[in-house]
């Protein structure tokens, strides 16, 4: 457990020292969402209708931006090999990295999302649902993304490849994330969608670190 | 003759039915041909390599 | 199973089986085609377009069979570190991807006269589209490494992760579809087919499956030979040092 906190703290310290990652991700998120009114027109009712989908799709893309660096730096300077030699399981390392990734991307995205929802005229009822779905959904994105990042270590064109691997696996999160917000906006129950989102998170919580650790092991072979 | 023409017309849907069958034929035959060709090319490359190394020939008799 | 595990024995066995499978495939597809195009009635609702079903459904079937083969072979390759399993997974991917593409293309050609549009976000078509991208990701990852062994292992992990995800994706797409079901769309062929249509369909499915196995065997043989070539080149480079891979493959 201590090792886990150590890994999270180390990654956070590195992220803060480099400074730019979270800011870049949020800037990308804001900028891309702002492009939509230019693309589809400023009519409030149209923007309101598409706002959950736009916010979620853009959040998926933004959360991928910092993924390819998740293990890359540690892999290149050899510290990943040192970490693998310590008695701590690689799974714990992955979970630590995922927590650090979520704190530096998922959480800032969650904070930025309501502001952008205002710009897109999202129905007031949808705001809580938006926050809850992002709270349940973005950790899954970090978990699945960590698996993808571990798989492409040392690959050619790793960044583009990563998006090809990870985006199809993000679709369920997108469907249920948007579905929950849409249901609330239409005055319906969103409990089922939130349960499924939580279920996906609970399933990804053990499985994704296992797969990512297996991928790291074969990358270090 | 007339029945052949009506057969190819496919009740007016010829431009959907025949492209579907044609595409399936094209892709499956293409798959078969490329797979066969890769196999032949590699078999020849292996044979050439084994010519160069007569010492190893006996070990690969199962090919 | 143990008999297939040895690459050399696999080569011999596949050479014996292959001609028979090829013959079965030609006969089944030939008879199936006769029934599909001449010997079966037009659908009372869909008219002659129902004949597209006889190539669409086998393609969809093989798209899924291909992914299952790939995932199972990947699991065997990861757990038992068996070189042949990796080669089977690698060989199955392009075949499965081709049939997934054919399923989408024929579905589109069927959709235009039936739904009035080339593409509908039908739950089944959408799932197949995502499956195609899972295939493309798998093949891209596999070929992205200089060391083919590394590519095979990474791709195997991805294939398993994708395989676990397929039911989740299927479930989400079905759920999403029921929410957005437009009323104007016509239902695809119902659950029960009359025997006159079921016969050609089953013949085609069986024939296509034989074809799949034939091409799979061809490609696995080509992969075995490729790794033999690689092993020989390695021993040439390293002089007299025997590589363990070469020993294993030479059987």
UniProtKB/TrEMBL annotation, chain A:
Keywords: Cell inner membrane, Cell membrane, Cytochrome c-type biogenesis, Membrane, Transmembrane, Transmembrane helix, Transport
An annotated Gene Ontology molecular function: heme transmembrane transporter activity
Membrane-topology descriptor: Multi-pass membrane protein
Gene Ontology cellular component annotations, sorted alphabetically: plasma membrane
Organism whose genome encodes this protein: Telmatospirillum siberiense
GO biological process, one term: cytochrome c biosynthetic process
Protein purpose: Required for the export of heme to the periplasm for the biogenesis of c-type cytochromes.
Ranges that cross the membrane: 21-41, 92-120, 126-153, 160-181, 193-216
Family: Belongs to the CcmB/CycW/HelB family.
Name used for this protein in its record: Heme exporter protein B
Principal subcellular localization: membrane
Entries under InterPro entries matching the protein: Cyt_c_biogenesis_CcmB, Cyt_c_CcmB_bac
PANTHER family listed in its UniProt record: CYTOCHROME C BIOGENESIS B-RELATED, HEME EXPORTER PROTEIN B
Cell compartments where the protein resides: Cell inner membrane
TrEMBL record, chain B:
Keywords: Cell inner membrane, Cell membrane, Cytochrome c-type biogenesis, Membrane, Transmembrane, Transmembrane helix, Transport
Membrane topology per record: Single-pass membrane protein
Transmembrane segments: 16-36
Highest taxon of the lineage: Bacteria
GO biological process, one term: cytochrome complex assembly
GO terms for cellular component: plasma membrane
Subcellular compartments: Cell inner membrane
Name of one Pfam family that matches: CcmD
Family to which the UniProt record says this protein belongs: Belongs to the CcmD/CycX/HelD family.
Primary role: Required for the export of heme to the periplasm for the biogenesis of c-type cytochromes.
The protein's name: Heme exporter protein D
TrEMBL record, chain C:
InterPro entries the record matches: Cyt_c_assembly (IPR002541), Cyt_c_biogenesis_CcmC (IPR003557), Cyt_c_biogenesis_CcsA/CcmC (IPR045062), Rhodanese-like_dom (IPR001763)
Pfam families: Cytochrom_C_asm (PF01578)
Any coiled-coil regions, as ranges: none
Superkingdom as given in the UniProt entry: Bacteria
Segments traversing the membrane: 20-40, 60-80, 92-111, 123-141, 153-173, 193-218
GO cellular component: plasma membrane
MF annotations from Gene Ontology: heme binding; heme transmembrane transporter activity
Keyword Cell inner membrane assigned: yes
Limits of the Rhodanese domain: 150-185
UniProt KW Mitochondrion keyword: no
Subcellular location: Cell inner membrane; Membrane
Main subcellular location of this protein, as a coarse class: membrane
Full protein name: Heme exporter protein C
């Amino acid at each position: 457990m201590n090792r886990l906190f150590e890994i999270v703290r180390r990654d956070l310290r590195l992220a803060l020292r480099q400074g730019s990652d979270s800011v870049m991700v949020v800037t990308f998120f804001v900028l891309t969402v702002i492009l939509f009114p230019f693309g589809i027109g400023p009519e409030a009712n149209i923007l309101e209708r598409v706002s959950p989908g736009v916010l979620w799709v853009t959040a998926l893309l933004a959360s991928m931006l910092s993924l390819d660096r998740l293990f890359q730096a540690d892999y290149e300077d050899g510290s990943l090999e040192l970490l693998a030699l310590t008695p701590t399981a690689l799974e714990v390392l992955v979970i630590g990295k995922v927590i650090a990734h979520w704190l530096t991307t998922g959480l800032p995205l969650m904070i930025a999302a309501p502001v952008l929802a205002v710009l897109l005229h999202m129905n007031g009822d949808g705001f809580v649902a938006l926050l809850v779905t992002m709270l349940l959904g973005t950790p899954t994105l970090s978990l699945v993304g960590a698996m993808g990042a571990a798989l492409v270590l040392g690959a050619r064109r790793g960044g583009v490849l990563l998006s090809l691997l990870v985006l199809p696996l993000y679709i369920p999160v997108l469907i249920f994330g948007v579905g929950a917000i849409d249901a609330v906006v239409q005055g319906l129950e969103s409990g089922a969608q939130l349960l499924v989102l939580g279920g996906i998170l609970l399933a990804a919580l053990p499985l994704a670190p296992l797969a990512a650790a297996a991928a790291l092991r074969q990358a270090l072979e | 003759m007339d029945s052949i023409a009506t057969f190819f017309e496919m009740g007016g849907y010829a431009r959907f039915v025949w492209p579907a069958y044609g595409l399936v034929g094209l892709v499956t035959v293409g798959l078969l041909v490329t797979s066969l060709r890769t196999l032949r090319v590699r078999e020849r490359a292996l044979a050439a390599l084994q010519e160069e190394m007569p010492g190893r020939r006996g070990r690969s008799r199962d090919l | 199973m143990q008999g297939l595990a040895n690459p050399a024995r696999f080569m011999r066995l596949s050479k014996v089986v292959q001609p028979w499978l090829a013959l079965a495939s030609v006969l089944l597809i030939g008879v199936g085609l006769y029934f599909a195009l001449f010997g079966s009635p037009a659908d009372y609702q869909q008219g002659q377009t129902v004949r597209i079903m006889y190539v669409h459904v086998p393609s969809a079937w093989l798209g899924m069979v291909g992914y299952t083969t790939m995932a199972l072979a990947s699991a065997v390759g990861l757990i038992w570190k068996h070189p042949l399993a990796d080669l089977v997974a690698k060989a199955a991917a392009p075949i499965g991807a081709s049939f997934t593409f054919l399923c989408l293309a024929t579905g589109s050609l069927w959709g235009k006269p039936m739904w009035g549009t080339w593409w509908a976000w039908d739950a089944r078509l959408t799932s197949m589209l995502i499956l195609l991208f899972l295939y493309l990701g798998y093949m891209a990852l596999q070929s992205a490494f200089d060391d083919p062994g590394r590519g095979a292992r990474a791709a195997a992990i991805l294939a398993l992760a994708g395989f676990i995800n397929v039911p989740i994706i299927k479930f989400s797409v079905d759920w999403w579809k029921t929410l957005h079901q437009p009323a104007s769309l016509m239902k695809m062929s119902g659950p029960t087919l009359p025997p006159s249509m079921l016969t050609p369909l089953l013949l085609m499915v069986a024939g296509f499956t034989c074809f799949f196995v034939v091409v799979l065997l061809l490609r696995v043989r080509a992969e075995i030979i490729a790794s033999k070539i690689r092993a020989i080149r390695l021993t040439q480079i390293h002089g007299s040092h025997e590589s363990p891979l070469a020993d294993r493959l030479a059987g």
